[in-house]
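Example 5.3 — D,D-heptose 1,7-bisphosphate phosphatase
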Amino acid sequence: MLAQCTVVVPTIGRPSLDVLLDALAAAPGPRPAELVLVDDRPTGAPLHPDRPGLPPVRVVRTGGGGPARARNLGWRTARTEWTAFLDDDVVPDPDWYARLEQDLAGLPADVAGSQGRVRVPLPPDRQPTDWERGTAGLAASSWITADLAYRRSTLAAVGGFDERFPRAFREDSDLALRVMDTGARLVRGERWITHPVRPTDRWVSVRVQAGNADDVLMRRLHGPDWRDRADAALGRRPQHTAVTAAALAAVGLAVARRPGAAAVAAAAWAAGTAEFAWRRIAAGPRDRTEVSTMLATSALIPPLATWHWLRGVVQHVGVRRWKGLPDLVLFDRDGTLVHDYPYNGDPAWVRPVDGAKEALDALRTRGVRVGVVSNQSGVARGLITREQVAACMERLDELLGPFDTIQFCPHGPDDGCGCRKPAPGMVAAACAELGVDPARCVVVGDIGADVEAAAAAGAVAIMVPTPVTRSEEVEAAGHRAGTLTAAVDDVLAGRW
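Solution (predicted structure tokens):
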């Protein structure tokens, strides 16, 4: 079973990554097909993960796109049935490989994911700090990707992680809800990881209040009952709103020269802040550092939590379900990727349009596969040979490759074949070759036949008209872009 599993570890280069890799290298038992490390740093020295005992390792880079984008690049890079995600600050048990294999073996087809079990070690000789208690909550959380394996087909069907969640917060719950909305099930396995409490500074509880904006996004995407479905507690946001309102009322009433009312509002603010601080202090070690930290942050958290919640209310108006990136983008050749020289059989005349290489590389960088589907009726007309077509395709691959699939039709318009566009044959064959659902495929071309072939295959089409594209074809195309670069930008932005 592990031969059909890829382990994906997004990382920002923390020292804990070495601990994780050492644990994976030392663990006995079978190995997965591959270990994909997704370097999510904007810059930095290359990672050097190789060590004896690891499965084959591949390192890919996002350039700093955030945890959701990093995980998406990881599973898109993988080609196995299962993708097992691990965070870079966890330590798998020595039997993790064997337990993972047991957890995945024989799962029914309706099970889309398997979550591992998490332990968070806390100090044995004192009460945990506020940060330690927050981290300990991971042990009881549902569907966190600290250790969670998904079927790759499931991830592709729902578009993977929603990259509008910029932090490592709620993006895993959002994915789980979308997966379960398809009718699939998520289960808990028997493998274990340890999640140590990561060292941090005293202001971490202030920074994490930005997650209140993500909670608004969750409500907009999944409805008012999302917390029940995701097993996510409401927390103290209503109290924070009330405390913030009291503070604002105290200031406003003071400005309005109503000192009595202002004093009452200020007292309400002070009481609410004191109650919040004491709850945090009472549960902790009560040493000098922790007490001073709780006092300072308890005054800051309510207004910041309210501010971020209001920011989310404004920011996430009219959001739609995440569509993600397609699994495959197929391009017409002549007139789309390269300048159109009719019935060209000379590789020297294969000349890319402006921005073609950059556009294709942008897709590859995000883990989207690319291919070519090209009518070459010059073969049937006796104007060029198959060998000349192959030579031109080789030159295309040299200039703009590598391509994951190249399909061409040598037939003429009267041959009645099923591959010549507007027939769906080449699009369907490319999808079948790569195991892609046509609904997750985009076809980019310059004429109506490209659009019709995509529709007939169940794919999505984007037309990039040229001066020779007939006006009625342009008008009939549902999605148009002015240039190849603009078409790819639409794909990367989820507008497809």
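Remark. The chain is about 40% helix and 15% strand.
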